[in-house]
Amino acid sequence: MKFTFGIVTTNKSQYLNKVVESIYNMNIPNDKYEIIIIGGDTVNKTKNTRHFKFDESSKPGWITKKKNLITKHARYNNIVYMHDYLVFDNYWYEGFKEFGDNWDICMNKIQNLNKSRYRDWCVWSDPDLCYDGPITLEPKYGYGANHKIVLPPYTYKKTHFMYISGGYWVAKKHVMEKHPQDETLIWGEGEDLEWSERVLKSNKYKYKMNTHSLISNLKDKKLSAIYLSKE
Predict the structure, then answer these.
(1) pTM reported for the whole predicted model
(2) In whole angstroms, how large is the CA radius of gyration of the chain?
(3) CA 194/CA 58 separation, integer angstroms
(4) Are 76 and 101 in contact (CB under 8 A)?
(5) Residue 215 and residue 86: Cα distance in Å, rounded?
(6) In total, how many domains does the chain have?
(7) H helix count then E strand count, the chain
(8) What one-character DSSP code corresponds to residue 97?
(9) What local confidence, expressed as pLDDT, does residue 47 receive?
(10) Domain containing 214 — which CATH number?
């Protein structure tokens, strides 16, 4: 399997070198991967790495544009989209080889530094799981104002109700070319929710959970989510 690792970053990144190092530590054959970094000025140009500078003043928080640039420049069909604070377990690549290639969009396990689950297999809009009270519809997306983010068991299959967190996912290049990120939206405007709803509710793609591979979140972030399982 061949992978493009696409990392979006800024000049303020604390963890970028650790992210890149974690990719090297997987010992993937050189002809099986590449690293694309979008943004930032102080990137070490090392093996298999291409860096594309980005004018942050053009539109602050324009991560949708950065992620579409990853798609544009990717040489391989399997593309990892990620922010610059997630690191790979040494066996991530071997886990994907075990999991296989029969998917269009894919997630794997994500954990916090304390080993708890982070936003990996997320449910956002399942009416049986995700609402605390009266549903207030937001005109553009139809999201419930009182929604809950639920982390269900990894066996949960109702993928049309799911949400792919914009911090990390894996997808085929042809899927992302047909369904790019909405560049009218910036960070914090629900760009990941909009994309998730647009792609998953089409029911055209295989969205699968790879439990053999793991990444870790280096940020100390509090997660407002309901855990239905500790898988």
Answers:
(1) 0.89
(2) 17
(3) 22
(4) no
(5) 6
(6) 1
(7) 5, 12
(8) H
(9) 76
(10) 3.90.550.10
